[in-house]
Amino acid sequence: MKRPVAYIAGTGKGIPAHVMTNHDFAAIGIETSHEWIVERSGIHERHIAKAETGCSLGSEAARQAMQRAGVDAGEIDVIVVSTATPDRLLPATAVDIQAEIGASRAAAFDISAACSGWLYALTVAEGMMAAGTGETFLVIAAEKMSAITDWTDRSTCVLFGDGAGAVVLKRSEGAHANRGILSAYMRSDGTLADLLYRPNGGSTTPFSAEVLADRSHYVKMSGREVFKHAVRSMADACDRALDGAKMSGSDIDLLIPHQANVRIIEATAKHASIPMEKVYVNVDRYGNTSSASIPIALEEVVESGRVRDGSRILMVAFGAGFTWASMVVRL
Ligand code: ACO
Fold first, then answer.
1. Catalytic pick among 55, 115, 157, 238
2. How far is the CA of 220 from the centre of ligand 1 (A)?
3. Residue after which a domain boundary falls, among 138, 156, 176
4. What is the pLDDT of residues 6-51, one digit of tens each?
5. Pocket, ligand 1, Cβ cutoff 6 A
6. Which site from 87, 167, 180, 214 is most exposed, i.e. has the minimal number of CB atoms within 10 Å?
7. CATH number of the domain enclosing 50
8. CA 246 to CA 232: how far, in whole Å?
9. pTM for this model (two decimals)
């Protein structure tokens, strides 16, 4: 496949109104401190969905991205939604968004690859475009991590937040022929699935009174192990995407890493020889929004003018599975 095939024509985000600061954990009986959370993760606050759903947040992000790309909902051929927290287990959140935005002629489906899911979704959409399946795609990540968080477990509940991000993907042609995805890399290692997972509540052990009682439908994480693998895999993924684009760290205008933990971000940037001035960090304001973290960050850097058409961006993610992925994009 000769790249670029697909470029980002517009970005958008949907963020819940309610802000929960580190100081708010005391009110729900969690023994922690602002200092501990900031020192270990870099997180100061996160947005928590109250009335909002994955569909409403994803639709808001999609409408913004379509408006900025100058595209109507009726022009969308395919909607791909990355989510680890679908509104319902059946059908996909993508079809709820399809109905909500009125994308009357779009195919719609979800992708589940945890925090790496949005880069997986972009790669799938690019491949579909290369195969001629459509011309205009919406690639969305919509996450309501607060719904799968155990709010009695201080080792995880301080880390996550809710939100959505979206892009419109169009064909790299005409005036946009040089813009788009220059390289993409994806990997997984399911032998390590139990280090970050929801043990029960799926079809093997359906939701029941027992599952509810032992809280095994919530996210369980071996934080230290996840940390080690995240650093190693994200560093390797940066190398692979840079190699694929025939670039080095110094060719990159901005690194957008998955926003889970500022220490993982710093280690990844160091490995890729990218100074922190060229790294976007917003984990302090949103916490870990799983696969939504990169498209939310992308919307912010585009809208603030920190990057412009032609900027070279390296994106890299790691998440449950484990899965990891990276991509170089010329905006
Ligand atoms: N407040 C205060 N103390 C706490 C808290 C808390 N919220 N949580 C845990 N502690 C305590 C522990 O009980 C432990 O106490 P002990 O030494 O008396 O037993 C101590 O703090 C140290 O705990 P660790 O878990 O070893 O702390 P660590 O330095 O590893 O930091 C953290 C924990 C922040 C979770 C870190 O391991 C991490 O960031 N891991 C990666 C997590 C991650 O990135 N996950 C997402 C990636 S994939 C995805 O996005 C889904």
1. 115
2. 12
3. 176
4. 999 999 999 999 999 999 999 999 999 999 999 999 999 999 999 9
5. 32, 36, 40-41, 114-115, 154-155, 158, 196, 223-224, 226-227, 230, 260-261, 264, 288, 290, 318-320
6. 214
7. 3.40.47.10
8. 21
9. 0.97
